[in-house]
Q: What sequence folds into this?
């Protein structure tokens, strides 16, 4: 989720760019003691920041800091302001702008909702959108996705992760066809990095013989109706 606009702080910490949440260290007021925030706590603070800015935007860094202290997310100390709020806001702003300056646009698609959490752990590190297709996606979902790709105005690389069985392959084909159909002006590079026959043969992946496939609904291949 992209955070709303964040007002520039008077000082942006050390200015060294993006920091991974796991790399954040917060010192206590006592110099003899340091503790490391867990990834879950950092994620919780980020979620609160987004909620604060969605409710009232824009805000200064100091205003966000006070709002977090009221919510009980951080202590009311200058250390928390500098080492937590300033760093997190700077990181979130840098991550938001990461792909804006890139010459290409990336998306990761996954066939099954159950695998979204696994891929999200990787995609979120690089701020790459993760699209959950759930097999054959609706026309509305695919049309909206295609319009977003076309709106980027740059080459788009779409990586689809799905099953190797016929239904899984056809679902990927259906996504590619409709993305190209609904975004005719976009340069789309569509690839299926997994699951492949080579990966199954090498033992990297095993076909799930117990899974039940859902056949393509007739409406999934219907053209988009103009309003």
A:
């Amino acid at each position: 989720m992209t955070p709303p606009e964040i007002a520039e702080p008077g000082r942006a910490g050390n200015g060294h760019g993006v920091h991974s949440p796991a790399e954040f260290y917060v010192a206590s007021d006592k110099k003899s003691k340091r503790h490391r925030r867990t990834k879950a706590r950092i994620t919780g603070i980020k979620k609160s920041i987004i909620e604060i800015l969605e409710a009232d935007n824009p805000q200064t860094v100091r205003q966000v800091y006070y709002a977090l202290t009221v919510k009980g997310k951080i202590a009311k100390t200058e250390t928390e302001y500098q080492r937590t709020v300033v760093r997190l806001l700077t990181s979130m702003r840098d991550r938001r702008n990461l792909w804006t300056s890139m010459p290409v646009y990336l998306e990761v698609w996954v066939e099954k909702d159950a695998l979204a959490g696994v891929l999200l752990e990787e995609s979120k590190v690089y701020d790459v959108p993760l699209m959950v297709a759930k097999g054959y996606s609706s026309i509305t979902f695919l049309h909206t996705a295609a319009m977003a790709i076309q709106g980027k105005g740059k080459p788009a690389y779409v990586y689809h992760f799905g099953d190797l069985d016929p239904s899984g392959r056809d679902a990927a084909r259906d996504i590619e066809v409709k993305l190209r159909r609904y975004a005719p002006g976009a340069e789309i590079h569509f690839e299926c990095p997994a699951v492949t026959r080579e990966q199954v043969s090498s033992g990297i992946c095993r076909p799930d013989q117990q899974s039940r496939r859902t056949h393509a609904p007739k409406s999934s291949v219907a053209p988009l109706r103009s309003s």
